[in-house]
Each structure stands twice: as C-alpha cells, then as structure tokens.
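Progress narrative, Year 2. Work on Paraquat-inducible protein B from Asaia krungthepensis NRIC 0535 advanced from sequence curation to structure prediction during this period.
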Amino acid sequence: MNRQALVGAFVLGGLALMISAFVFFGNFHPFTHMDRAVLIFRGSTNGLSVGAPVNFRGVQVGAVDRIAIEYDPKTREAYIPVYVTLRRDDILVAGEKHGHLPSLHDLVDHGLRGEMNLKSFVTGTSQIDLDISPGTPAVLHPELTDVTEIPTRQSSIQAITNTLTHLPLRKLSDDASATLAIVHHLAETLDQRLPALADSVQATSDHSRETVDAAHQMITTLQPQLLHTLQSVDRLASTGTEQLSARGQELHLLLQNSRSTMDTANKTLTNLQSMTSPRSMDRANLDSALRDIASAAAALRGFANDVERNPQLLLTGRRQ
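Result:
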C-alpha cells in the first residue's frame, strides 16, 4: 500500500512539474487573457520559427503560434501569415480604470505595427517586434485571413537586405574591373616614367643646392665689403649733414647780401633811367659831350690820315 502511494505521489509530482514547465516555458497560460493576431509578410522570414518571441520595445508580450503560406492566384504573389498569441493583461491604457484592456483593433487604429528583426547574429534566429508608429500606413489583407491583422512594416535589416539584393553587382563588377585596368595602366606608366623623373628631380635638387651654396658663399664674401660700404655711406651722410648745418648761416648771409645788391642795382637803374630821359638836363649835357667827342674824333681821324700820307708833318707841321 505504501509502495502504491509512493508511485502515485511520484506520478502526480511528475505531472505537476510537466504542467508547470508547460505553463512557464510554453504558450499555455490558463489564467491569462490571450488574443490571437496575424502579421502578413511578403518577403522572406528566414530565422523565424514557431515559439519565437513577440516583443513590444523589448518586453515580451506573446509568441509565434503558426507560420503559413498563402498564395493569391489573382496577383500571383505569395504571402506568409505569421499567427501570434498576445497577452493583453500586460497592455493597459493610461488614464483609464485599472483592468481596462484595449482591443487589438483600437491598438491598430492608434498605430500598432509589427516588423521582423534578427534576434541573434550567432544562431540566425528572428523575432517579431511591435511598436506604435502612427506615421506608417496600415496595409491590410482581409481576403487572406479572418483573424485580427496587425499591419507590418519593413525593418532596417530587411531594408538593408533588399538594398543589397537589388544592387547591380554585375555593373559594379564591370566598373571595378575597368577601374583596376586603368589603375594597372597608370601604375605601368608611372613605373616607366618615375625613374627618369626621379633622376631629373635629383639633378635639379643638386643644381639648386649648388646654387644656394654659391649664393651663400658670395654673400659671406661680400658681407664685409657691404658693411664697409654702409659705414662709408653713413659717414658721408653725417658729414653732409654737418656741412649743410655749417654752411646754412653763410648761405643766409649771402642771400641777404644778394638782396641788398639787387636793391642797389634797382636804384641805379632807376637813376640811369631818370638820367637818360629825353627831357632831362643830364641827357642834354650828355648829348653835347658826345657831339664834342665825335667832332674831336673826326679831327683826330683826319690828322691821322694826313700823317699816314705825309709822315713829315710830324716834324715840319702843316704849312699855312
């Protein structure tokens, strides 16, 4: 009897542990209000599997229940509906009474959106992230499912993946090959021309060095002579300054004497002008004297002519 009770207790304990593990680690929550929703993706869902977490800004609010494939023959497009279970007990509305739970339709109307992001770079697993984004348009697919749909948006990783997928790799490869060919040609050209250019640069550098050395030597040689010349110019300037200072008074006196001489000459010219006036007495006397002198000169000239013709006149004189 004790053995049967022990076996029964062991079985009950195992069932309790299994139920506890299923409750805590599974998606079965008998005492929690659960809602089912679906997110429809058009692209790849690599890394997403059943049981993957559904987070709202890092807080887990549910898990993935089922992943399906829906094909629309009209548009010839394939969709991947991802069914999730959400715990609404963790979502409350601010300002409302305690225990008020918003509906998924209300949350979708307020901008609830979902996206698929990479959960681990090591394992490559993915997860569903929810967030409020009123600016993202809500694209719904009522013809594919009757379950409440949460609109999806493209994640940053998916955007990068799509960008890399649609890159013109062939064109980029051709452009890279052409660029490498140009670089190779340029390298060969430089390899041929750089030695001659280096020799020319070296020769120019040596010539410039020689020129600089010669100029330096010339400056060193001419420096004493230039210094002596500058000293001589300085002495000459000092001597000229002293001589100008010494001759300044003499020049001033000379200017004064020249001015008095000019005044005297001016007075003399004034007197001469008054003397040579046609109506002045001095002019009449001067004219009379000039006539007398002219008569004497004429008589003397006649006597000289007579003496020249007859030199004996000097001894005998003129006969009456």
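The chain has a mean pLDDT of 78. The longest strand covers residues 77-87.
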